[in-house]
Amino acid sequence: SDHFFLQIFVFEIMAEEEDRGDGGSKQEGDDSTGAFLAMDSFYDKLKILDYDTDFCRKLGMKPIPRHYFAVPENANEQLYYFGSLMSWMLSVAGQRFPAPDQYDDPNQIATNIVIELRKQGLPADCSTTKLKQGCGEEVCQVLNNLANMALKARKFKYGRPEHTRDENIEETPHVEDVEVVADRVVEQDEVAEDLADDDDDAYVESAGPASSKADGAAASGPVEGLTEAEVHAWLAEVERVAPQLKVHLRTDAKDWRGHVEEMKTNKENIGGSLTTTRGQLEKLAQEINKTMEKIASREKYVNTQLEGLLHEYRAQQDEHAAISQLWSQSSGGLSEKARELASITDELDRVKAKLDEKGTSMTDASPLVKIKQALNKLKAEIVQMDMRMGVIEHILLSASLRDKAAMVHDMHAVPDLDA
Q: Nearest Cα to 143, choosing from 50, 77, 70?
């Protein structure tokens, strides 16, 4: 019960802050209120799923405060904890989602979360930018949906609420009682003012011939046994605080008793509407059953009418599969032949290149011309050598003739006797 009243107190504070805000702050307050409400509901579901034992102790994670994902703190830590909780709740529901690492890219973590939500068929209309923040109403709503999925996997059902009355809780006084108390305070103020006008010392002694009303107030009031100065000081204090003692309480529309009464009224209205709606739903169910029977009979008729076509279709499909297999095999042999043809073509091109090179060298007359020029040059050089040899022979012959003539002359010469 204390937890229930604490929730109501928190909601009332949120509502008062929302009323005090302007237009922009009011919208921001609405968003934060939605995040607080969603996070509060999710935290209760975590307790039902035995989060402290199965998640914190087994995985070595620290427990989070009640409104951890409703307020921004450390975006990276909140996003990592968000992904870890999602992985754990999906494992409770029989699904598999790898928990993120603390040093993974936040964009990748948010993208993986959105993809997994779409895969599980859960609402994933939130953007990755909001999920990357690790807090806010969108994150709390996603966690609530995952918690509902985990509770459904565990076949948990909510029971009817039991309202227990706490005897120690003091009833809030009604407006009429408060007004009576305020009237009594005003009456006491009036009596004190009447007594202040009377300067008789018998007021203090309670022996003066005052009126019955003044005597009763003096006998029962707090001024008995006080001096006149203390009485005047007390009256001045009463006059000062009297306006503050006038209490005006208005009934709060957010009181839990009003919510309980409203729930009872809504229950009666739903029960009254259920009697009329049940007949309509039963009639609709009968019509749906008849329509389903008609569809089933029509389906059987169509199947019997198309049975021959179905057999023919299956035969054509088998034939098509056989032809496709044959074509695959043929295409494989064809590709091999194409590769072989390409290699032969390359070899033929190389042979043609060699033949062309040899034919060109055979028809080229430039070597013959060079040979003829070399022969002519050799002939000219031979003629020159012959001429040089003739000149040298002539020179040698002339020299030998001169030597021979000199020798003959010396032989026929007369020796000189005088000598």
A: 70
- CA-wise closest residue to 111 among 95, 126, 121: 126
Number of helices (H) and strands (E) in the chain: give both, helices first.
Answer: 15, 0
The tokens 């609405």 sit on which residue?
30
Position 17, amino acid: E
Helix, strand, coil distribution of the chain in percent, nearest 5: 75, 0, 25
Neighbours of 290 (CB within 10 A): 10
In 3D, which of 117, 62, 147, 202 has the Cα closest to residue 210?
A: 202
- CA 158 distance to own-chain centroid: 31
Terminal-to-terminal C-alpha distance of the chain? 182
Question: CA 202, CA 38: separation in Å to the nearest integer?
Answer: 69
Write down the residue that tokens 């073509």 correspond to.
345
The secondary structure of residue 310, as a DSSP letter, is: H
Q: Crossing angle, helix 23-48 and helix 2-20, to 10 degrees?
A: 160
Torsion of CA 45, 49, 53, 56, to 10 degrees: -50
Question: pLDDT tens string for the chain (419 positions)?
Answer: 444 444 555 555 555 555 554 444 444 444 567 888 888 888 888 888 888 888 888 888 888 888 888 888 888 888 888 888 888 888 888 888 888 887 888 888 888 888 888 888 887 777 788 888 888 888 888 888 888 888 888 888 776 666 665 544 444 444 444 444 444 444 545 544 554 444 444 333 333 333 333 344 443 444 456 688 888 888 888 888 877 776 555 555 567 777 888 899 999 889 888 888 888 899 999 999 999 999 999 988 888 888 888 889 989 999 999 998 888 888 777 888 888 899 999 999 999 988 888 877 777 777 788 889 999 999 999 999 999 999 999 999 999 999 888 888 888 875 555 54
Q: From CA 205, how far away is CA 285, in angstroms rounded? A: 90
Residues 405 and 174: their CA atoms lie apart, in Å, by 184
Residues 6+ apart with CB under 8 A from 102: 76, 80
According to DSSP, residue 226 is labeled -
Residue of 220, 218, 188, 187 lying closest to 203 (CA atoms): 218
Amino acid identity for residue 286 in this structure = Q
Nearest to 143 by CA among 281, 252, 45, 290: 45
Burial of 63 (0-12, 13-18, 19+ CB in 10 A): exposed
